[in-house]
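Below is how a single chain appears once it has passed through the pipeline. First comes the sequence as given, then the structure the pipeline wrote out for it. We keep one example in the README because the format questions we get most often are answered faster by looking than by reading.
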Amino acid sequence: MTNRTIIEIDNILISSAIFTEHFTCDISKCHGACCIIGDSGAPLTGQECTTLTKEYNSISNHLRKEGINSIKKQGLFVRDLDQDLVTPLIKGEECAYTIFDENHNCFCGIETAHRDGNSTMKKPISCWLYPIRVSYLSNGLIALNLHEWNICLDAYAKGKKEGIPVFRFLKEPLVFSFGKDFYIQLEKAYEQICSG
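Resulting structure:
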């Protein structure tokens, strides 16, 4: 196992695993299982909850009947056992915003709405940044850690085969969340870590 260290950029603590591990989603293998497996829905920010409230009518046009019914019963977002804001589930299983294609692959209905110009939110940032998990610490710092889930083993294998470090696979959501300058600093840190 690779020794992992913590790198600090501004007020953000970053696990070296996002540089040393590789990742590329392989939906042909997992079929989007992250949308339907887990203890609770996708974590949401307060701003995302506000956006869902404002834009749900247009987003709902892209959802399944089962998802719409679940949202009607539970709400656009709920609190999980840790009291975190998350997306509701359908019968305790898949996310209420999940849709399926003809090959039974799972996709995000919010993302489909965004692609069609019906939502300003691409998808929950917790999903977009996966497998990086963001934690907000009591001392005001932010931590970025790698979440390793057995349903994504094929994605780690594909990323390694293609030589794509986790942070490069996630360039777009990292820039969206933390800015272009932060991402440039990640590239510099990568060069230092991986050139040694």
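The chain is about 40% helix and 15% strand.

See the next section for the split statistics.
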